[in-house]
Amino acid sequence: MSSDPASQHRPSASAIPAGATYLGQPRGEGLRVALACSRFNGAITERLLTGAWDGLIGHGVDRASVTVAWAPGAFELPLVAARLAGSGQVDAVVCLGAVIRGATGHYDQVAGQCAAGIQRAQLDAGVPVILGVLTTDTLDQALERSATEGVTEGTDKRANKGFEAALAAIEMADLLRQLPAPGVPAAAGLPQAERSSTAVR
Fold first, then answer.
1. CA neighbours within 13 Å on the CB side: how many for 145?
2. Into how many domains does the chain fold?
3. CA quadruple 65, 33, 80, 73: dihedral positive or negative?
4. Whole-angstrom Cα distance, residue 178 to residue 22?
5. 59 lies in which domain range?
6. Which end of the chain is more exposed for a tag (fewer CB within 10 A), N or C?
């Protein structure tokens, strides 16, 4: 055993090689994505879902490769997300919903536990689980952040947080495809030139 204390914390052979640059790209071809949606404040969720669909399809994800699951509310989303992420059948999960302070008496508890649970789901599964749940003070704010009107195909829909969440899911899934998995030698990753390519985003 090495007498150097620092050696105990050195990365294994699967670690990122020194000097490497990895960057997720918005390329969704071949990805399997799940959308976990909240029925509570469903009118807002539907708008987010529209944005998410546009983001996925517009960046190469096959509609047939997308699974949609509906939970009663935002508080239940982490469990649904954990089940989907841990299934081995998806490359990313997007959680969609809205928690509005004026419409929810226990706003802080729901918003905080939802975010914490979603984070735990992705860390436990090792699969990107993206937080696309709005937390706003008013309904008007939620409507503004889930805008769909006046948008045509090919138009930037970054005002819709569902679109943003879908794009983040694609980029994270692409990034994880490049990064060496635990126990896999770093040499198994993509060539350096492809790892360091510039993002379109």
1. 21
2. 1
3. negative
4. 7
5. 44-168
6. N
Does the residue 37 lie in any domain? no
Question: Is the separation of the CB atoms in 90 and 56 below 8 Å?
Answer: no
pLDDT in tens, 15-50: 677 888 999 999 999 999 999 999 999 999 999 999
d(CA 137, CA 99): 9
- Give the bridge partners for 135, in sequence order: 99
Cβ atoms of 170 and 57 within 8 Å: the answer is: no
Out of 12, 29, 30, 106, pick the active-site residue. Answer: 106
Catalytic residue flag (residue 106): yes
Give the list of residues 6+ apart from residue 191 with CB closer than 8 angstroms, or none: none
CA distance 158 to 71: 25
d(CA 39, CA 12): 44
Residue 143 lies in a domain: yes
- Does 160 score more than 80 pLDDT? yes
51 found inside a domain: yes
CA angle 138, 169, 58 (to 5 degrees): 90
Region of 94 (left: φ > 0; alpha: ψ -120 to 50; beta: rest) is beta
Query: In this structure, is residue 2 part of a structural domain?
Result: no
Q: What is the pLDDT of residues 53-63, one digit of tens each?
A: 999 999 999 99
